[in-house]
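Run folding on both entries below.
>entry_1
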Amino acid sequence: MSAETPANPRAVARAVAARFRWPWQRDYARAKLSWDPAYAAVAGVLSESDVAVLDIGCGLGLLGFYLRERGYKGAYLGVDFDAPKIAEAQRIARIAGMDLVFVDGDARALPEFSGHVVLLDLLHYLQSTDQQMLLREAAARVAESGVLIARNVLRASGWRFHVTVLQERFIHAVRWMRSPPLHYPLRDEIEAPLRASGLDVDVRPLWGNTPFNSFLIVARRGSRTPQEGGGLHPDAPRGTSRTIADEAAATCRTP
């Protein structure tokens, strides 16, 4: 990271974006890392941890590059079935001399792994049965000292959900995403397989400055006693206590 403030999202976004060769990729990376609170949220959970990370559905590898810029030194394995995106991530990692591994693979056939597991905006591109299987397989790869972190849209009746559905249709229509959304999960559909796998689960809104119905799911293996009710209802407003999600949103508002 440069001499600019390491946690400054604009500085991190510029550093990562500059590594992409096409202008539209640079613009996308810069905007995504500047305004999407998911990356700061993940970095916040993984702070002071060098346990290996499995990034399922890594796309262009933004999370891996972001974590390196934020000082994360653990091993990283990114998996995605979009071969051109994986090729670009591999190219950047090779040129930059970063020890990040990116592989072209299907989320439904995960490699052997033990550590932290991350799934950002992935589940709704799978059918319900595949979501359940993936969550069980992902949970099985969480180490004793590890954590599973997911960010996903949750099915609800509010305006945020409908805006998210429109945005998903658009990015598929312009071929940014190879797969259309197949099933928007309810909160219980995510929590149930994780709890059945022995993980304590917390669900919080992760809206930041976006209009999307995104939630942060953090699951740990026996790290704490689950709270009664397991977090927030998908339609509930944020509480007054500052959570990792709140800190991430605040970080993304840093000028």
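>entry_2
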Amino acid sequence: MSGNPSCAVRRRVSDATPCGAGHALSHYELAFLSGGPRRAINTALAVLATAGAVRVSRGSQVTPVFGAPPSPVPIEQAVLATLAARPGGYRASELRRALAAHPALAELAAGLERRGLIVPERARLRGPVDLHRDRALHRGHRARQARPQPAERRHPGGPRGPALGP
């Protein structure tokens, strides 16, 4: 191996097989990871428009195309079903709001959560983590545990126990 040593390293790294299990992600999962439910719905609209299943006007009015084949993808099915339920279609922003709590999006998020790719909703509701506050609370808890308790609190009835009769 004569020549530039960095070239040899590049060759060895490029020949290596990746370790660990990768995540095969659909375009809807990628969209959800990069922009949440809004981006996933926009992706569905783009896919459906490209396939000719919906039309999007310049004013962002989304309408279904009569006779378009049904989709096997749950998010696309949700978009088409929501559009079919309202003659005249939706504005894109209204459609996103109407679909925000749809079970298809909830299942998409749950699948990403099960794979450890997003944080569960209940964990996000706690708010931002404040390490300084959490450490101070923890120090205060340890200090309370180490503090000696008054005799009355250690032994009911005083330091020698409950009184025995009159």
